[in-house]
Design goal:
Elements: E1 2-4, E2 15-19, H1 27-34, E3 42-49, H2 52-55, H3 66-75, E4 80-85, H4 88-92, H5 95-106, E5 108-114, H6 127-132, E6 136-140, H7 148-156, H8 160-167, E7 171-178, H9 183-187, E8 192-195, E9 206-212, E10 215-222, E11 233-238, E12 249-259, H10 267-283
Parallel strand pairs: 1-4, 2-3, 2-5, 3-4, 5-6
Antiparallel strand pairs: 7-8, 7-12, 8-11, 9-10, 9-12, 10-11
Length: 288
């Protein structure tokens, strides 16, 4: 898959362009992208970074980093992706200028988008305008009950199985493995501690079954209340894995929320609870 940051970096070609932020690349987004698979045209996805809401004054917790978004798009078999920087200059373009500088300049013959897609200064551009400008437009109906907003709400409640149905894949947390207090190793369950990007959504606190690196993983999202912690941490015990992960990027799937985090009467009770979490993780079923 070819990835560029400017329309000018695309080689000349006739294209079917799917456009949207595609945060999370959920099943609704996939429907839009699939409609850009047109014989004889190059399938091109145009997306934005940062999320437009940050520039427009309504920040949001994102479902996936740009790096992860690109990986998910590649898994769909997309030919090329343009990651446009969404800034005040782009937001200030009137709708016709946006259409010409993005779609016309890209060689778009077909444009696919959700039926409610709007663009340009004041969000005044819509799919009717694109048709008026001579583009073939494929309006993709919204998938009932599926939206990034709904997925955020489900994850905020820890409902990862329900969120997976809308994502078309398990929910994830993603970050760089950093040095922790190494307490897990002393308990017999060494964990990878994740430092997450600041704007990435983190699901409800609790203990989850999931996977990482092709192995099952028991995951703690919480403050470590047994030891009086107050800072949120994301820790993954990757089952049957040995290796140094420090400094590496790690994508962790969340399959099932097992329980609330808790303080225990003794360290032995804590160890027993973690052992139970590990066994339940071994039996967990991957959703999505």
């Amino acid at each position: 898959m070819i990835v560029v940051r400017h329309i000018d970096d695309l080689e000349p070609a006739e294209r079917a362009v799917a456009i949207g932020t595609f945060d999370g690349v959920h099943v609704g987004h996939r429907a839009v992208i699939e409609q850009a698979r047109v014989p004889g045209l190059r399938q091109t996805v145009v997306t934005f970074d940062p999320h437009p809401r940050f520039v427009l004054g309504a920040p949001v917790e994102i479902l996936a980093t740009v790096e992860r978004r690109l990986e998910l798009l590649e898994e769909l078999g997309v030919d090329e992706v343009v990651v446009l920087r969404f800034d005040e200059a782009l937001a200030a373009l009137d709708a016709a200028s946006f259409a010409e500088s993005v779609f016309r300049h890209a060689g778009a013959q077909v444009v696919t988008a959700g039926v409610d897609f709007v663009f340009g200064q004041g969000r005044r551009g819509n799919l009717d305008l694109l048709e008026h400008l001579g583009f073939e437009v494929r309006r993709v109906p919204l998938v009932e009950g599926v939206s990034s907003t709904r997925i955020r709400a489900l994850l905020g409640a820890g409902e990862v199985v329900e969120a997976a149905a809308l994502l078309g894949r398990p929910a994830e947390v993603e970050g760089t493995v950093e040095l922790g207090d190494r307490r897990g190793a002393t308990l017999g369950f060494p964990t990878a501690n994740l430092a997450l990007p600041e704007d990435l959504l983190v699901p409800e606190l609790g203990i989850y079954a999931g996977s990482a690196l092709g192995h099952r993983a028991a995951v703690s999202i919480g403050t470590n209340p047994h030891y009086g912690g107050t800072t949120r941490r994301i820790e993954a015990f990757v089952l049957d894995y040995e290796g140094d992960l420090y400094g590496q990027r790690l994508v962790v799937e969340l399959w099932e929320r097992l329980r609330d985090e808790a303080a225990f009467d003794s360290e032995a009770a804590l160890i027993a609870a973690i052992a139970s979490d590990v066994e339940r993780t071994r039996a967990a079923i991957r959703p999505g």
